[in-house]
Amino acid sequence: MSNNTFIINTDNISKYFGKILALNELNLHVPKGITGFVGRNGAGKTTAIGILLGLIKPTRGKATVFGLDSWNDSFNIRCRLGVMHEINAYPVSFSGRRYLEHVARIYGVSQAEERIKAQLKDVDLWDAREKPIKTYSAGMIRRLGLAQALISNPELVILDEPTANIDPIGRSTFLGIIKRMNKEQGTDFLISTHILSDLEKVCTWLSIIDEGKIVEEGPIDDLAAKYSANTYKIVVSDPQLLVENLKTAEFIEKVWIEKDTIYCQVNDADRFYTEVPKIAGNLKLQLRTFQLMLGTIDEIYAKTAGGN
Amino acid sequence: MAQHKFLGLIRWELEENLSLPLLAFLVASAIIATMINYNFSSPYREYTRLFYSSSTVFLISSLVTGAFFARSYAGSIGRGTTKIMLSYPIKRSQLFLSKFIALFLVISAIYLPVFCVHVYVDGLVAFGPMIILSLLGLFLQLMLTCSVAVGISMVTKSEVVSILATVLLLFGLDSILGMWDILSAQGRLFHLFQYFGNEFYGTLPFLSWDPVTANETLLAVLAPIVVFVVLIVGSFVYFTRFMEVD
Questions:
Q1: How far does B223 lie from chain A, in Å, by closest CA?
Q2: Residue-level pLDDT at B117
Q3: B24: contact with A, CB 8 A cutoff
């Protein structure tokens, strides 16, 4: 992928806070679609988002969003995106509806009333629309955060820890809205989180940050294959018989059975692909499934950043 | 569109600042200010009374103004509201100015009626020269207070520290400098009363005290204006060009 195809590009960004190095030559690339931005607490996710929004100036390097410089063209960038921060510092005396009215006015949303109504219903806050924000639960405030981020129907939405403090049903609703917005309106999302299971359900691209650096990024399917740990899954008519024959094979490092399915960790994938069907054929076994086990986001994260 | 957005921002700030319990606090401080009265028996007793009761209004209003400006600027940076606001398509200059205008309107709307109550209670002529001088003194004091509070807020970015620093600085300045210094609220008012009392009435409201010169009076008026311009322009440039919101 060339740099032109990415909506967010950072070019060797470093950021110091005093003597503390928060970002260390960060090269983040975000394509269209839904991108997961993963890293432990203090890895630099929020600082990176601050730079993308023009809230923080990088010490070195340059960041662009929609091809615009994040510090100098920050206003034009912000006109085209919606943001939900990790912090919930909304004016507590306002009602949810009143707050969205103010935000809609700032974005210049046309037919604001209908849009506000739709957003409040979408995030399940319609019944609580006239209550002051100070009476909202943590989950309700997160949902209000999503509503205000989506109110202008932006091209890109940046969500910082969106599902923190939300119950499982609420999280599912949240992810459903993200998926739908992406599918129906082509809205792109950058989701910064450490709840990896959420990302698996929605993301198409993954960027992993550790100690202020991108340690891995790419399409989720490619990363899943790359970090598969060379583990294969085989389903045959007689698994016990095949396992007995595979145990002595040189290209097999480990083989085991779980619920009639054989799992093999291999050291030579090419030989494995050619030899196993032959062995199964010689034993007159019916080979039903024969496939590479893709790595989960947890595994990818553990192998790139989690190990440190 | 930009103007519409700016007015919307001022409205946003007004709504936030006029919400309870902040409004209740403001009104309570105003009531306290009007309750303090002095009784003097000098030939110019009504102006002496105006001088001392104005000083009380000055003191309370400047403490409240300092606290409100510090809360709005440093508090919103510390709480993260500024971060959220600056993630919307709002120019930093618009945010800075909308806060300033909204707060100045709120403070003026509370303390101008307080001052009018004083004029009524003291039985003075509305829009008489000394009343206008008192109003000028109040306006200059508010300018000084809000600029100090905003300046300190930009440095500390902490609501509590900014409120304490602003209140202690202004209160301390007045206590240490007293009535004779042009940098204290009382000193400024004293210079205005003493000089213009002599000009308008041919005699001094504070008979036993020394007269003041025109230059001293001009300095008393210019000092808060200069402090205001330096601190507000400096804070504005810092907020719009250099400040990082993390």
A1: 35
A2: 75
A3: no
A31 three-state secondary structure: strand
Q: Do A85 and B80 touch (CB under 8 A)?
A: yes
Distance CA B238, CA B232 (A): 10
pLDDT confidence bin for A164, thresholds 50/70/90: confident
Task: Please report how the helices B2-17 and B92-121 are oriented relative to each other, as an axis angle in degrees rounded to 10.
Answer: 50
**Structural domain harbouring B185:** 2-242
Domain coordinates in residue numbering, chain A: 3-218, 230-292
* Contact with chain A for residue B8, Cβ under 8 A: yes
Hey, what CATH topology would domain A3-218 get? Answer: Rossmann fold (3.40.50)
Chain A residues near residue B8 by CB distance under 8 angstroms: 102, 105-106
Write out chain A residues lying below 8 Å of B16, CB-based. Answer: 91, 93-94
Whether A35 shows a pLDDT value over 90: the answer reads: yes
CATH fold group of domain A230-292: Alpha-Beta Plaits (3.30.70)
Optimal mutation site among B16, B244, B245, interface A, most CBs of chain A within 10 A: B244
Q: Which parts of chain A are beta strand (E)?
A: 6-17, 20-26, 29-31, 34-38, 60-65, 68-69, 81-84, 156-160, 188-193, 205-210, 213-219, 231-236, 252-258, 261-266, 287-292
Separation in Å, CA of A101 to nearest CA in chain B: 10
How many domains, chain B? 1
pLDDT exceeds 60 at position A235: yes
Q: Which residue, among B87, B91, B244, would best test binding to A if mutated, counting the most A CBs under 10 Å from its CB?
A: B87
Alpha carbon distances (Å) from B31 to A50, A132, B98: 44, 28, 27
Ranking A2-6, A50-54, A227-231 by mean pLDDT, the lowest is: A2-6
Q: What is the DSSP string of A66-110?
A: TTEETTTTHHHHHTTEEEE-SS----TTSBHHHHHHHHHHHHT-T
Residue segments in chain B with a per-residue pLDDT below the cut of 70: 1, 20-22, 33-47, 49, 122-123, 125, 179-180, 203-208
Contact status of B180 with chain A (Cβ, < 8 Å): no
Residue-level pLDDT at A187: 94
Q: B38 CB near a chain A CB, below 8 Å?
A: no
Confidence at A151, pLDDT banded by 50, 70, 90: very high
The closest of A234, A228, A231, A238 to A289, measured between CA atoms, is A234
* HSE value, Cβ hemisphere, 13 Å, CA-based, for A236: 24
The Cα A296–Cα A165 span in angstroms is 24
What ipTM, to 2 d.p.? 0.82
Higher pLDDT, B115 or A184: A184
Instruction: Give the count of Cβ contacts less than 8 A between chain A and B.
Output: 74
Which tokens hold the place of A82?
Answer: 């919606």
Q: Which of B1, B79, B87 sits opposite A53 (nearest CB)?
A: B87
